[in-house]
Amino acid sequence: MKPKQFTALAYNSLDEFVYGHCPNPVTCKNGMVIGGGTVYPEINFTLPNMQVTNETLMDVLDTYYEIISGVLQKAHELHVPGLVVEYETLPEFTYNPAWGVQVHRILRDTMKEFEIKHGLKSALRMTPNDVREFNRPPIMRSGRYFNNMLEVFDTTAKDGADILAIESTGGKEINDEAIINVDLKTSIFALGVLGARDMAFLWQHISNIARANGVISGGDSACGFANTAMVLAERNYIPKIYAAVMRALVTPRALVALEYGAVGPSKDCAYENLYLKAITGTPISMEGKTAACAHFSPIGNIAGAVTDLWSNESVQQIKLLSGFAPEVSMEMLAYDCRLMNKATEKGSNLLLRDLMVESDCYLDPQAYIMRPDVAFKIAEEIVKTPDAFSRTVNTARLALEILSNAVKAKELKLDAKEHKWIDIMRDQLDEIPEDEEEFIAEMKEEIDEDKFIPEEYGL
Length: 459
Hints:
9 strands, two-stranded antiparallel sheet, globular, single chain, alpha/beta
């Protein structure tokens, strides 16, 4: 497959860059349009603490039926105009594709039943768990884990899924340690070299499956990279300035999926989505304050500024005072989306967008880097060069410069103890050769050979 090249932004003005609208919306099989003017909730859920075995499988299936029935009933009661349901498989459902397909059918059939009975339009996003990393070092292009993952994609696509997506892990085996060490150079190798190559390989397969079955090739997420950094920064294990740079740094890797056939909506936990939307004009899903059930973050409002789907990330089927947690999340998402859509109807969507931005952006570097004007600057830098390596290095330099300038101007609140990391990270970037092959040779010498297999990335 010849990759698509993005050489310019999809927008002419920041006033066009707003939630619910994008130049290239996608239409689901039932006619539901994502990015066509309406923000829809995207609900994500998982099992309570229970084992998944042959012996417990029927209980597992019953629990998924209870979850989806409760969620859809709540959406119907709240007059939700449509929703996306994301089914992220547990590892057991990727190890055993037949189990994963059984859950998929329960969700699909119940969603269809609610559409027929109540007119509640919905779309099912299928997200197999990337289990390739369960080999150590990971085997990325062959073997049981890879083949089972593709089987889940193919079988569920044939079985009625609407959107295919994944949180792929190529390069994560290197990046996990890099995050802990605040090692920007190794993160760039993990993302701009290993991750980008894995994305090109993997997304050709996913997009081919999508095309063959008439479903939407959605998008990826660097959750295991940037969101890991965000959570560690929130716990004060690493500098927030590093996590903020990572927020933008993962974008060239994520863009590869759209170069190889993905059309959105990209995944909710991919905060790099706003940069992708600026470049490609494709719809995105985002999560913020209403994802606090899954993780805390400093970007609760700003995450919604340009989103097209609004997600809760994930929540277990546990009983709260009002009801089960997935139903509670559905209600919160419904009201969030209702407010955004009403602001659009009243011609106040830009005002609401800007209020969401201003309420977060000055208090944390991870929020500041997500300002729409900053996103445009970073997106413009990314499209200047055609290769993921150069894009990744240049993104890191620009993100660091933007954050540094904001701190100097006293526009961005940053703990004094973090200021030194700006210079440290700048020095790390200066150590990276301009030539990718030279950089690869250098990093292969520095990284223990038992950490990753170069051949699994075409090196």
